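Human: I would love a firmer grasp of how sequence relates to backbone shape in proteins. Could you go through the record with me and say what the backbone is doing? Here is the record:
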Amino acid sequence: MTALNILTRVLLIVGGLNWGLVGLFGFDLVAAIFGEMSALSRIVYALVGLSALYQITTLVKPAPAHAH
């Protein structure tokens, strides 16, 4: 697994946990840490979104052929 795969998966886990907190308790952890819609919060939200797009491409990209 590449470093980019690990990083994007970690960001997706952070994003998923944050949305779970928003849905269950109305608590936005990213906003609580970095400020509501601050530049840092927006960067985190954007990175989570870009991570999702990257992970989608890994799902639809054909697997490399293995040499025998």
Remarks:
- Residues 3-59 form one domain.
- Residues 3-25 form the longest helix (23 residues).
- The CA atoms of residues 31 and 41 lie 6 Å apart.
